[in-house]
Write a structure and sequence with these properties.
Elements: H1 3-12, H2 16-25, H3 28-40, E1 48-51, E2 56-64, E3 67-74, E4 82-83, E5 86-87, E6 93-99, E7 101-109, E8 116-125, E9 129-149, E10 153-156, E11 161-166, E12 171-176, E13 184-188, E14 196-200, E15 202-203, H4 206-219
Antiparallel strand pairs: 1-2, 1-15, 2-3, 3-12, 4-11, 5-13, 6-10, 6-12, 7-9, 7-11, 8-9, 8-13, 9-14
Helix pairs in contact: 3-4
């Protein structure tokens, strides 16, 4: 299945379970080989990547009709697990674990005094400059925890507060639906005095991107 056909099929899919079935059936190796060929053509391939602050290379493979197909390649680490920030998403997210394992931890908003309190930040990006703006505080409790291994698919609904605990070197194929709102929320501890945090997105060169895809193809 070509990238265009894969995304057209996903665009035509109307419900979560059907999207998961389509994601499950996608041949990730064929998709990556096609993406690699597009990069090699040295035209405006639409394939690009940057180093995400949560510890993975975020590769955008294709986009059509607001549906985006991405690959997340989690970087090597001396730690047993890579912990992302606690956050939500602007869209419904569907993920297939290609290699390694991911534990998805879900949080609920709490009114209990003993619950952990977090600063809530609004995340926005211009494509290069990224910004976190503190908009309040909130208490959170863990409500669920699920582990996924190679071949498993899972969904993170729009607005769901979650955190990923990921084995270093893991690879996931990700589909995101059209955005429902304008910004993501990120929840951090120990930053009560911070009003804003600014940082710059680090894009990956074509050479580095090809090396990353070659590495993923070698381990999957």
């Amino acid at each position: 299945m070509t990238l265009l056909n894969a995304l057209n099929t996903l665009c035509e899919t109307k419900d979560n379970s059907a999207i998961i079935r389509q994601l499950q059936s996608l041949d990730s190796r064929s998709i990556l080989i096609e993406a690699k060929q597009k990069i090699g053509e040295k035209t405006d391939s639409g394939v690009f990547a940057y180093m995400h602050a949560n510890g993975f290379v975020k590769i955008t493979i294709a986009e059509i009709g607001g549906i985006v197909l991405r690959l997340h390649h989690w970087q090597p680490s001396t730690s047993e697990r890579i912990y992302t920030t606690i956050h939500n998403h602007r869209w419904n997210l569907y993920s297939k674990v290609i290699s390694g394992e991911v534990t998805d931890v879900t949080y609920d908003i709490s009114v209990e005094v003993k619950s952990d309190e977090y600063s809530c930040f609004k995340y926005t990006s211009s494509g290069v400059d990224e910004r976190l703006e503190r908009i309040g505080a909130i208490k959170l409790n863990i409500s669920d925890c699920e582990k996924y291994v190679a071949g498993d698919c899972y969904t993170v609904p729009f607005g769901s507060i979650h955190q990923s605990l990921v084995a270093p070197g893991s690879v996931t194929l990700v589909v995101t639906a059209p955005a429902v709102c304008d910004f993501t929320k990120v929840y951090l501890r120990g930053l009560d005095s911070k009003k804003t945090i600014n940082f710059t997105r680090s894009y990956v060169s074509s050479h580095e991107l090809l090396s990353c895809i070659n590495h993923v193809l070698a381990i999957t």
